[in-house]
Amino acid sequence: MNFLPELWNYIKKICLAVTFITVIVAGGWVAYIYDISKKPQIADKQLIVEGDNALNIGRYADAKRIFEAEFKANPQNKQAAWSLQIAQIREKLSQPEFKEAIDTLYQQNPNDAYVNLFLGDFYAANDQPDKAVQHYEQAIEQNPKLAEAHYNLAILYVQQNNQVSAKVEALKAIEISPTPKYRNNLGTIYFKQQNYGDAIREYGRNKEYPLSSLESAKIYWRLEYLSQALSYQKQAVEWLEDNTIMSKPDNQEAWYFEIAPKKNIELISLNEKKSYAYFCLSVSFYLQGDMAGAENEVQKLRDLKVDRQGVINSLLTADLDALVQANGRFAEQIATYKKLYL
To answer: N or C: which end of the chain has fewer CB within 10 A?
Structure first.
């Protein structure tokens, strides 16, 4: 029976070895878990970057959605919490409490580019251009990728009739992010300079973007190329009636128009945009002598029953007044059209 002690010793050695291996494996797993807990999650970082990109080009609803999702998944993510505040506050720009709210954020972090951007928006909207420029420039210095600051500066310079500086800022916005909104803005600057060829080329770079087609048609009105104007407007209407095209983020954004110095109009809903397009198309039919075609388009916009139709009427009136000022040969026809439909 001498082999029993030897067997017992052998069994003990095996048990010790198993225990040792178990400890090593468990320790390694704990270390691994601890290590990855310290590392930022790639998905989290990607969402933050995606949200910042949306803020940079003025897509605040998208930014809000992204940061809400990240903050809900990771309530301890301070960057997501801060950025969510930024995205949410922009919705209050036209509300009385906006200035107090943005001042509070400015006190917390005066070096935040988006806070300075929104302060610039506030001062621009309240006829304080010098302060607006100051904050826009600070925002750009703090975030060189902030295309929306360049875009808003361009609009401000247009309002000041500083077309040269407006063009510079518009080009910078496009260089950062060549979105249809920014290209359309540059086209409009060329339009105001009566540089019609460059305007049409810039508008033409925007595919499946109805606003640019409608703007090109206005140029063709002035040049008395009514068939071309009609063609561009029909294309715009076709895109507006295509739900897939209009669901694109670029086409979810509001359309911005300056109808007079310091007087702006935005078309926000799809039906508002359709109503405006039908109106423009009706003008082209009317100028060509197609009264039935003009009446048909006007009936389409009436069927939409847009709540802010009066705003759209004001916009078209401004367009037609500008047309007559640029080309007096249309004066009599436009006067009659306005009596009939405006």
So the answer is: N
Per-residue pLDDT reduced to its tens digit, 55-72: 999 999 999 999 999 999
Query: Is-contact 202 187, C-beta < 8 A?
Result: yes
**pLDDT the model gives residue 15:** 53
Q: How far is CA 232 from the centre of its chain?
A: 23
Q: Specify the 3-state DSSP secondary structure of 260.
A: strand
Maximum Cα–Cα distance across the chain: 126
Q: What is the pLDDT of residue 6?
A: 57
CB 64 within 8 A of CB 71: no
- DSSP code at position 267: E
Instruction: Return the closest-CA partner of residue 334 out of 294, 301, 306, 304.
Output: 294
Does the residue 318 lie in any domain?
Answer: yes
| Count of domains observed in the chain | 1
Tell whether 47 is covered by a domain.
Answer: no
**Domain range holding 216?**
210-342
Is 125 among the domain residues? no
Tell me phi and psi for residue 257, to 5 degrees. Answer: -135, 140
Nearest-angstrom CA–CA distance, 258 and 166? 14
All residue ranges of the chain with pLDDT < 70 are 1-44
Q: What is the pTM of this model?
A: 0.84
142-186 pLDDT per residue, tens: 999 999 999 999 999 999 999 999 999 999 999 999 999 999 999
Does residue 307 form part of some domain? Answer: yes
Cα 42 vs. chain centroid, distance in angstroms? 26
